[in-house]
Design brief:
- The protein is built from 14 helices and 24 strands.
- By secondary structure, the protein is α/β, with parallel strands linked by helices.
- The strands form seven sheets. The chain has a seven-stranded mixed beta sheet, with helices on both faces. A six-stranded mixed beta sheet has the order 9-8-7-10-11-23, with helices on both faces. It has a three-stranded antiparallel beta sheet with strand order 5-6-24.
- Helix 2 (about 70-85) packs antiparallel against helix 4, helix 4 (about 105-120) runs parallel beside helix 5 and helix 9 (about 270-285) crosses helix 10 (about 305-315).
- The N and C termini lie far apart (about 75 Å).
């Protein structure tokens, strides 16, 4: 029986040591549907005592889990993947209901999350050690790769299932224990659903735990706790900087995927129809609430007017509103105060000389797809991570200016270059100060076996494939002296 069929009876509980238990905190938290405002469930927050118990059982359980055979670890991950397929429609509905995902986005998130689980299932067989030569006679140098111990994962609300599993699945597959603190806006899809899947898949008790509570109340304690060896966080740069500072004080490793102010550079030889089609998707998927979403679209002056005309025409066709409607591309923002924030930015951009070509109005938590053209680099809106359905169109006189404008930001997560010459696109991509750049594609890309991560204020560390193995394991040197070693004689 699934959680959906049990009417969410466990989705108001903490998950500690294989048990669904009431939170020990005093605060009662509401989990709301961002489109309707309807309360999905109420739950009692966790507190420091819950965090202590969760980390302690994760540490204890990880000792035995580390020793389990690769086939056992692989089997759990394969079972999670199979359960995801079996429960796909339930998961899609949860993403729509809890995070305001459109069906288009929920389907994409489900597919990405499943690929991460499938990729992680191979990790137990990819923990390779080495035997290295020695200059000491009779010595054998062995370099071992081992799990780090316990990983603390702070899950986001925008792609809650995918971005939380991106750390949880590899960490568990590699033999670590895990404690999740999901975003308070999405405790189900960033936490309890994941725990339920792993529990149903046969993961031993205590290896995975979920403590849901307000970051302002328990966030610092979750990071500073002495048990976790790595804190994995996906979210805003401001919060990530605080986590990085606190972790540094405790000599704790981090994996931080933070904000982005991503640019698409459209050169004069680009196919305008292809470029605008790509730009619309990269800007408006999930209402622009994606760290990789396009914020700034920088177009060569020679084709700027035609590009703007095509982009606006395509944006007008976007359906906004009910995320459960399969035709909707732009659904609700996570909360109405985000709409107010964006409307203020739009108003400010207009006051500074930008042209509002489309949108700029809202209904409840849904902001209509908005297009601002003739935006100048000095305008306030250009330096913001928008995280909403607002497209900023900028003009560049040549390739050099386009690259300069793309790099004129403290962020460096993802980017895009459109051109008719692929080699030229590659050369331009190399000049963009970003962890990821995609030629003749938009900026929202994520593949489970490929590295993922940003530069500058967009984060520290890499996720995906071999990079995830490196992040969630450690290497140790153990030497064996096979014959008696001669030491210098003491006179």
């Amino acid at each position: 029986m699934t959680l959906m069929e049990t009417e969410h009876t466990t989705w108001t509980k903490q998950f500690i040591n294989g048990e669904w238990v009431e939170g020990s905190g005093e605060k009662i938290v509401e989990n709301k549907n961002p489109y309707t405002g309807e309360v999905i469930a109420t739950w009692r927050s966790s507190n420091k005592d819950d965090i202590d118990r969760a980390y302690e059982v994760a540490q204890k359980s990880s000792v035995e889990w580390k020793k389990s055979l690769p086939a056992v670890k692989e089997g759990v991950l394969r079972k999670v993947s199979a359960l995801m397929v079996e429960r796909k429609e339930e998961i899609i509905k949860l993403l729509i209901t809890e995070s305001g995902s459109t069906r288009i986005k929920a389907e994409a998130e489900f597919a990405s999350a499943k690929r991460i689980v499938d990729e992680a299932a191979s990790f137990p067989y990819r923990m390779k050690g080495e035997i290295l030569p020695s200059n000491t006679p009779g010595k054998e140098n062995r370099v071992l790769r081992e799990p780090k111990g316990v990983i603390g994962v702070i899950g986001p609300w925008n792609f809650p299932l995918h971005l939380c599993l991106r750390s949880v699945a590899p960490a568990i597959a590699l033999g670590n224990g895990v404690v999740i603190k999901p975003a308070s806006d999405t405790p189900i899809t960033a936490g309890w659903l994941i725990a339920d899947l792993f529990e149903q898949a046969g993961l031993p008790e205590g290896v995975l735990n979920v403590v849901a509570g307000s970051g302002s109340e328990i966030g610092d304690y979750f990071v500073a706790h002495p048990v976790p060896k790595v804190i994995s966080f996906t979210g805003s740069t401001e919060v990530g900087q605080g986590i990085g500072k606190l972790a540094g004080e405790h000599l704790k490793e981090t994996a931080l995927e933070l904000g982005g102010n991503n640019a698409m550079v459209v050169l004069e030889d680009a196919d305008i129809e292809r470029a605008t089609e790509s730009a619309v998707f990269g800007k408006f998927l999930h209402q622009g609430q994606i760290c990789m979403a396009l914020n700034r679209i920088i177009v060569h002056a020679d084709i700027y007017d035609k590009f703007v005309e095509s982009f606006v025409a395509k944006t007008k066709k976007i359906q906004a509103g009910d995320p459960s409607d399969s035709k909707t591309l732009v659904g609700p923002l996570i909360r109405e105060k985000e709409v107010e924030r964006l409307l203020d930015l739009i108003k400010g951009a207009k006051a500074e000389g930008a042209s509002l070509l489309l949108g700029g109005t809202s209904k409840g938590s849904v902001l209509e797809p908005t297009v601002l053209a003739d935006v100048k680099p000095e305008q306030h809106i250009v330096q913001q991570e928008l995280f909403g359905p607002v497209a900023v169109l900028m003009k560049a006189q040549d390739e050099q200016e386009a690259v300069r404008l793309a790099n004129d930001t403290p962020y460096g997560l993802s980017g895009s270059v459109f051109t008719g010459n692929l080699e030229r696109g590659y050369q331009v991509a190399q000049q963009i100060e970003s962890g990821m750049v995609h030629v003749n594609d938009q900026s929202v890309n994520d593949e489970a076996h490929v590295m993922f991560g940003g530069e500058k204020s967009s984060g520290i560390g890499r996720f995906g494939g071999d990079w995830a193995i490196e992040k969630f394991t450690r290497t140790r040197w153990i030497s064996i002296q096979h014959q008696y070693r001669e030491y210098p004689k003491v006179q």
